[in-house]
Predict the structure.
Amino acid sequence: MLRILPLLLFSLLFLTGCGPRLRPFTQDLYAEQQWDEADLRRIQFYLSEDVVLQRELRSGSSRIRNGSVQVINGREVEQVVFRRNTPGVFTFSPKDQRVAISFEDDDDNYLIFGPNPKNGNRYSLLASDWTRNSGTVNYAGREWRVSSDDAYASLLIPLKRIRDEDTRGRVVRGRRL
């Protein structure tokens, strides 16, 4: 058993090292790479944090599509939950420095992200009418409330940095008698 433990530990470290390294999608990276919409369509995006959308259901409007219904303080609330590391794809750019990312098969279901100076210019979730506790986002043609904690949920991309340096060299094979 003691001989197997180091092997299992090595295997675990090896497998975790082989996965994609996710890096924040920032305005600096976007500008540096000069990506256009065609390039953005080929990038796999991921969420950095959980995001929970909520909307209160009115009587007679309890039709559920993408989420679940919960009763909170006596009110029926529909939720759509996006878990951390949920993969998404670029659908369009509504305006400069904004990207619409869809995490579902329907391109009409998307969230808008843009650079947030308070979050290191990472492309973070954008909402209108931010208050101390929440903001409003449009998703699937409806208005949803999102917690102010989700304001720092940002986009991640698999990024493999390659040195831009021009390195010249050779491999010495050694010398034998």
Remarks:
- Residues 4-18 form the longest helix (15 residues).
- Residues 59-63 have pLDDT under 50 and may be disordered.
- The longest strand covers residues 75-82.
- The chain has one domain: 20-158.
